[in-house]
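Much of the work behind modern protein science is quiet bookkeeping, done one molecule at a time. The protein below has been through that process, and both of its lines are reproduced in full.


***
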Amino acid sequence: MSDTKIDRETMGRLAKALSFITSAEDPAVVAMKLAAESGEAKDIKHARTLFLKVSSTHRNGALAMIMDDD
């Protein structure tokens, strides 16, 4: 995930999946929703940093959920 770029739409979908796994108030979810809405580089960087701090089990679960949508 170190060099992975996530577009705004995918970040929004990932935020929804993570909120299902954790909660809508989780700081990573809040940051990802903001980044998906604003598209600003600083918001995206902050969201990515928080997402990487989420437990690997939750990260992998959220990623698996959005991959099943495709």
In short: The longest helix spans residues 8-21. The chain has one domain: 8-69. The radius of gyration is 11 Å.
